[in-house]
Amino acid sequence: MALNPHLAALTDRIRHRSRPSREAYLALIREAASATPNRSHLSCANQAHTFAAAGPDKAALRAGQAPNLGLVTAYNDMLSAHQPLGDYPAWIKEAARSVGATAQVAGGVPAMCDGITQGQPGMELSLFSRDVIAMATAVALSHNVFDAALCLGVCDKIVPGLLIGALQFGHLPVLFVPGGPMVTGIPNDEKAKVRQRFAAGEISEAGLLEAEAKSYSAPGTCTFYGTANSNQMLMEVMGLHLPGTAFVPAGSPLREALTRHAAVRAIALVAGGSEYTPLGLVIDERTIVNGLVGLLATGGSTNHTLHLVAIARAAGILIDWSDFDTLSAQVPLLARVYPNGSADVNAFHQAGGMGFLIRELLDAGLLHPDVLTVAGPGLRPYTQAPTLGPEGLVWRDAPAVSGDESILRPAVRPFSHNGGLRLLTGNLGRSIIKTSSVKPEHRRILAPARVFDSQEALQQAYRAGDLNRDFVAVVRFQGPRANGMPELHQLTPPLANLQDQGFHVALVTDGRMSGASGKVPAAIHASPEALVGGPLAKIKDGDLIELDAERGALEVRVDPAEWAVRPLALPSSTSHERGLGRELFGLFRTHATTAEAGATSFGASFDRTHP
């Protein structure tokens, strides 16, 4: 199948606009590659430090001839998604030794859980933890004694942070090694209904806790299709996983076999061999576009309208929300996984999973097939799925037909002919809306504004019964420079309750909703944000706001002359600057780029066109 002409044209536009920064990035990794193997340049004292505690690998490291893998791990045993990673270093070291190589844990990165910090002060550190993880990855690899790297991480900011950091070492081969999902708990739609009932005061906190505990019940990644599982999809469609690895269950023999094989495969890709595959060449304009397609075809997390932008810029590639919007009109929605369906990722995997999805997109001309991946040249190997049998680990073609077309469909029978992500523009700036889980009758609203400076203020108004009407909730001063751009998940149950009661409601915010964006229309990531003079700072209670997701418009109906001179409101509180470590993140808030530029504090650093 020929490449879709719209996809080809977009890739060419991205390549053209990115040429100076991309060429500068490639020059940097060529310069770094010319200095390898790195250990040969160390002094004797430097080298002695590297193998002093290496145990059975001490002789091999001292000789300095065998490839050495650096592991960057997000392991901790509090978070279910990352707890399985504790066993990985031992497996990887054994696998490396089996092929005459070595592996060392190069360093750890923080892994915070948005599920724990939702609605709490710690949530204001969440987005910037991505940049901390990127820096921690760079620190881990800065010892400059590794021939390749394995990144062990799963959740929301961890994978983007690991990839941004690893791209600064783009001369090295890098594989991502996931942890896998937990066993399926109570149905996700049942969990959502319990949350709505709790918000309405119909059940106790004990009842809510019981439902949550049945949903999040074992080691592994949460099974809804939020940012964590969108990460795993992206790493696969972008060729950074072993094929078929994303949703193999945590704790299974197949998961262990894949982890061990990742080490063997990484060693095959090091410089000096016939398959040298540096990360900086795996991630190119085509790979980024493939990631965009995968996100749209699966209804993935809106957080990646930030993360993919930041990842691309780390490799010298420039994309923006117009690119998402352009592709969304061309890419069909092939998966319905909660919150844009009722199934979880385990059901998606059983229905055919990533192998089926990638084959359908390739055969429809909607993915670049000729990319470089850690499995070798071309994306076609990612249409296979791994199995473990008497002959060991083998890959076979993904199922020819979906195991459940209510979850996963072929490209000729999509759930929707577009990807369900729209760019909204108008006199309220630029924002993103995820429409794949919003019913068509809710995609346009014209209603008066109710303005809040925090999600707590909206919740208080809901509990007081002050929101029983049609309205557009404007929750502002939630952008990256204001308070770190927290997710506002606690708004979902009350707004969903009001919508279920027949009221026409919507949300407009410069904050985030992420992978759990649900059935209430939400214009998120409004840019520029209110704190830096964005138009949300001008809105008053009662202003008529029109949100039209079909037309791609977000506008306030105020006389232009009045709007031009209306003063900007100031935030009602600066409490976000203190407590739970938030004092340490002032530099990040001050230097954050706009949401559309990735909300990153590395903006100037990523401009590689100037010395």
Notes on the protein architecture:
- With 611 residues, this protein is an alpha/beta fold.
- The strands form four sheets. Strands 9-10-14-13-12-11-15-16 form an eight-stranded mixed sheet. Strands 2-1-3-4 form a four-stranded parallel sheet, sandwiched between helices.
- It contains 22 helices and 16 strands.
Task: Describe the secondary-structure layout.
Blueprint (H helix, E strand, L loop, with lengths): L4 H29 L10 H8 L6 H6 L4 E6 L14 H11 L3 E7 L5 H4 L8 H16 L6 E5 L5 H10 L6 E4 L10 H12 L5 H11 L11 H11 L15 H16 L10 H4 L2 H14 L5 H11 L6 H8 L16 H6 L2 H11 L8 E2 L2 E2 L6 E6 L2 E6 L23 E6 L2 E6 L9 E9 L2 H9 L7 E5 L4 H4 L8 H9 L4 E5 L12 E6 L16 E5 L4 E5 L2 H6 L20 H6 L20
Parallel strand pairs: 1-2, 1-3, 3-4, 11-12, 12-13, 13-14
Antiparallel strand pairs: 5-6, 7-8, 9-10, 10-14, 11-15, 15-16
Helix pairs in contact: 4-11, 6-7, 7-14, 8-9, 8-20, 10-13
